[in-house]
Each structure stands twice: as C-alpha cells, then as structure tokens.
Amino acid sequence: MNPKSLSNSERVALIQKQRKRTQYQDAVLSVVGILGFLIFWQVITVTGIVESRYLSTPVQIASLFITKLTSPNPDGAVIGVNILSSLTIALSGFGLAIVIGIPLGLVMGWYKGFDSFMRPLFEIIRPIPPVSWIPLTIVWLGIGLTAKAIIVFFAAFVPCLINSYTGIRQTSEVLKNVAKTCGASNFTIFWKIGIPSSMTLTFAGIKVAIGNAWATLVAAEMLAASSGLGYMILMGRQFGRVDLVILGIVVIGVIGTIITMLIGMLENKVLGWKKL
Amino acid sequence: MINNKTAGMSAAERKAFYLSRLYMILPIISVSLLILLWTTVARNSEFPSPKDTFDRLILLFQKPIKGLNIFGHVWASLVRVFAALTFNWTFGIAFGILIGWNKKCKVLFTPLFNAFRAIPPLAWIPLITIWMGTGELSKILIVIFGSLASIVVNTQAGMSNVEQLYLDVGTIFNANARQKLFQIAIPSALDAIFAGVRTSTSAAWMVVLAAEMLGAKSGVGFLITRGMDSIDMPLVLMSMIAIGIVGALLSIITQFAERLMCPWTRKRSD
Questions:
Q1: Per the CB < 8 Å rule, is B126 touching A236?
Q2: Which of A224, B28, B77, B176 has the fewest Cβ atoms surrounding its Cβ within 10 A?
C-alpha cells in the first residue's frame, strides 16, 4: 500500500502544498459566492423578472455612485457631504459614549458603593431602546447635531458600560492579591491591574458600540435630518428612486465595515501584548 | 437593638456589616433621587411629571387610540416580533448550523453574509417599503432583517467551536456524520444558540419600534410618533416606559428559558 516512506522534509512540503491548495480553493469559493450573487442580481433585473421599479442593477448603482460624487440631485447634497455629515454625528455620539461609558463602567465595576448607587439607574435606562429617545431629544434639543449625537450616544453607551464593567469584575483575584501583598493601595490596583486586564472585554464592547452607533444613526437621520446617508435613503424612497436607496444602503454598509476594520486594527495595536 | 446584632463582632466585621447595610440603602437613595429630579424638572418646565404620565395611562384606557389601549398596542408590537422571531429561529439557526458545520458552505456564504450584516437593519426600511408598501408583512420583514444576523452569528460560532475532543470520541465510537451533528455538535452548541436567541429577541424589540415609528397604525412605536406629532409629551414618556418594561420582561423571559433549556450555563453566566 505504502509505495515509499516519506522523509520529514517531504512530509512538511506535502502538508504545506495541501494547505495552500485548500486556501486557494477557499479564496475561489468566497469570490464565487460574491460574484454569483452580483451576477444573479444583474440577471434578474436585466431580464425583467423583477421590475426595475423595485430593483436596479448593480451596474446602475455603480454609475449612480460616480454621478453622485459631483451632482447634488435629487436629495440636495453630493455623496461626500452626506458621508461627512453622517460620520460627524456617529463619531461624536460614539466618542461621547466612550468618554463617559467606559470610565463609568470601570468605576462601577471596581467600587462597590458606587455600583450599588448607579446600578439601579442604569438598569432603568438600559431596556429603553435608543430609537425611542428620538422624540424627547427632538423636543429638548431640536434636530441639530447635538440631538442626533445624543441618540447615537444612547445606543453606544450601553455596550461600552456593560463590557468595561464585566471586564474589570473578571480581574484575576491572584493579581489583585499580589498587588495587595506588595502594599499597593486600592486605587493603584484599580489603575495598574484592573484597567489593563479589563481591556479585552472593553474593546469587544467598543466594537459592539460602533456597530450600534452606526445603525442608530440611520434611524436618527430618517426621523429628523436635512442631510446625511439616512436622509439620502429616505429621499430616495420619497422620490421613488430605488437606485438611490440601494446606493445609500451599500455606502452605509461599506463605511460600517471600514470602521469595524479600523477598530480591529487599533485593538491589535493596543492589545498586542495579550496575543501570544 | 442594633448594638445587640453587632455586639459579638470584631471591628473589621462590624465595618463590613455597616458597609453591606449601606450598599442595601444606596440603590433606594439613587432611585428616589432620580424621581426627585424628575419631579423638580417637571415643575419648572414643560416636561411631564410622573403624575401626568400616569394620568395619561389612565386616559388611554378611557379613550383608546385607534381602538386600542396600551395593552392592545403592546400586543400589536409583540405579534410582529414573534412572527419575525419564529421565522428567524427556524431559518437562522438552520443557516447558522449549515455555515458553522460545513467548511465549504462557510467560505461560500460568509463574505456574502458579512456584507449583508454590515448594513444596519433600519437602513432596509425604505427599500422594503418600496417593495411591499407599509403593510403588516413589510414590518415583519424589517424585524426579520433586523434580528437575523445575531442568531446566525451565534449559532455559527457555537457550531464551529465544538470541542474537538467530543467529536473525536464520537469518531472512536463509530458515529456517522449525522450522529456527530445531531448528538454531539448541536447539543454542545446549544448555549451559544441560546445566547443568539436572547440577543435576537432584544434586537427584534428595538427594530419593531423603529419600524412602527416610520409608519404604522398600531403598536408602541406608533404611540410614540403619535405623541410626538400631537406634542403630547406624557404619551411619549408613557410609551417609553411601557417599551422599557416590556423589553426588560422579554429579556427576563428569554433568560429563564435559557436556564430551563440549558441549565449548565448558569454557573458561567453569573
């Protein structure tokens, strides 16, 4: 059965070759998945199985994107302006959530007294979905940047807080006791041990938060805005421009992915020491 | 009296005892501070006081909006959520198992699925209303889109993280592929699947609200927009509180169901 026994280096080469082949196959398959979907989409729209009133072709969307780069019609702003205005809102709300949520979660997780004071308040606010704050914030703050940023803040705040809270609570008792034995004060332990060891979960929370922020932004812009990607989508619907709606959806998806990737890179940089 | 309780304790024990008492009182203080803040703000501005909000609830029972009182509206929203969730739990879990178990399916579908997942659920709303109007079906579809991703992701993660040891044991005992899937992999992924069930429920509750706010004739989201349009702030606040309570109840129920279905996760979640 066995024609010849392989030497070690031959075996390694064989395995590497097999692995390369599977990698190649996988890459081909994922490209096939995406391309297949695009072709399917193009075919059903071009042949008229789905009316063009309901769905435009991928090619049309791409050409609309190029037109929208320079032309403000029909929603009143070129796509760059829309993207910029959406990003400003999302990032200011998200930044606020990080600046407030993470320290609050860390302190709540570390100091018991503060926890028992804040926790009920947080538990009251938590189950209310961010979208339902929209009417109140409109009444309080109008429909400007602040109002929308606050709505985004509500969406991003909860995961930031929960994750940093859980993260710091999972600090290893051994590490804490070592520090205590060496005479560190409670605050020093919190600063030097609690915070660094909570960072893995905190970053997971930040990732969830940016996703939430970006998703809620669309709702905020649909209910009250005069520019932005959510507004562009809504205008597309009102003018019956299906291509504009789909373009908006695609751009929102792509930007969301890019932001997630950036955060992943930041995480690798900050938490590089954790990965073995 | 109190001294009797603490009499036999050392100084450190006494300190711990008083601290634990303090921790029990602090939540009550914070909540009463919140209510105090609410009433003072209400007295000095247009903002509705707790009493206004409660009166609005009573008024809603006496004069229902669109023929439904608050329970009717909550029920209308819940029906949409459940219709969508039933679909998601069957197809989402099935799809998650497929891409978590079969490597080829995973590489074929994952990029596509990720592309769809990157799109916020609410962004679908205009497209879906172009496709199917603003009827009941379109709202259910929006909720389906909004809560499908979390269940698929969790199921897939659970299925691809099955302990290799269990599968190897199965191989040793001559289990065929089907037995390995149904008797080893799926039961061991059950806790991950249930985490997905929980997140998808809360996501669905959030999305149904947004869907209703953008055009509906019943449901709690509709109540909020109705309050906003007629500048009826007590109504808005009351609906928010109702939404919060129902959302909290939903998460308690799913948590309870999880404990019932997979009791071994209890230790880990604490």
A1: yes
A2: B176
Closest alpha carbon to B227 in B38, B79, B73, B35: B73
Furthest CA-CA distance within chain B: 76
Task: With beta carbons under 8 A apart, name residues in chain B contacting A18.
Answer: none
Q: Return the pLDDT at B269.
A: 45
Residue of B nearest to A55 (CA): B131
User: What is the four-CA torsion angle of A124, B252, A101, B212, rounded to 10 degrees?
Assistant: -80
Nearest residue on chain A to B20, alpha-carbon basis: A113
Domain B56-269, architecture per CATH: Orthogonal Bundle (1.10)
**Which of chain A's residues have a Cβ under 8 Å away from the Cβ of B98?**
none
CA-CA-CA-CA dihedral for A199, A202, A203, A206, to nearest 10: -150
Query: What DSSP line would sit under B147-197, residue for residue?
Result: HHHHHHHHHHHHHHT--HHHHHHHHHTT--HHHIIIIIIHHHTHHHHHHHH
Question: Which segment of A73-82, A107-116, A141-150, A182-191 scores lowest on mean pLDDT?
Answer: A73-82
Which residue is listed with tokens 């096939």? A32
Chain B residues with beta carbon closer than 8 angstroms to that of A233: 123, 126-127
What are B170's two structure tokens? 């199965």
Show Cβ contacts of residue B50 under 8 Å, excluding neighbours closer than 6 positions: B35, B38, B39, B42
Contact indicator for A229, A254 with CB cutoff of 8 Å:
no
Distance CA(A163)–CA(A198), nearest Å, equals: 8
Higher-confidence residue of B270 and B96: namely: B96
Q: Helix and strand tally (H, E) in chain B? A: 15, 0
Closest CA to B49 of B229, B238, B231: B238
**Which of B15, B31, B122, B249 is the best substitution to test chain A (most A C-beta atoms within 10 A)?**
B122
Residue A199 carries which DSSP code?
A: H
Chain A partners within 8 Å of B27 (Cβ): 116-117, 119-120
Q: How distant, in Å, are the alpha carbons of A238, B6, B8, B14, B15 from that of B11?
A: 72, 9, 10, 5, 6
The yes-or-no verdict on residue A5 having pLDDT over 90 is: no
Here the ipTM equals 0.76
Residue in A with minimal Cα distance to B214 = A223
Contact call for A127 and B248, based on CB within 8 A = yes
